[in-house]
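Table S2 (text version). Query chain:
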Amino acid sequence: QLQLVESGGGLVQPGGSLRLSCAASGFTLGSNPIGWFRQAPGKEREGVSCINSSGGFTKYAVSVKGRFTISRDNAKNTVYLQMNSLKPEDTAIYYCAAGVLCTLSPSDMAYWGKGTLVTVSS
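Corresponding structure-token output:
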């Protein structure tokens, strides 16, 4: 059974850091581009970052560029999102998703995890 499982969310103060992980089971993560998306209360789901299957190409939303870093370890079947300098507006449920393209468009992704909550608050 194909599954994506996110972990690493939690409560952090503004300016702090978190590292999210996206682990896959039932398929080889390294064969797919992976994206991170987020959805804040009352807002639409939006793309945060994506990485191609080899890890040689990445893309970031303007709002997180320079603060977030996406990476992957195909040997561990895991993709990471390092989030630094977190702001209250980064508060959201964060999802990872697998697709056929490195894209920030949620509608282009085929498989989704259930998400992990990130709360940035003092």
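Notes on Table S2: Residues 40 and 92 are 4 Å apart (CA to CA). The two ends are 40 Å apart (CA to CA).
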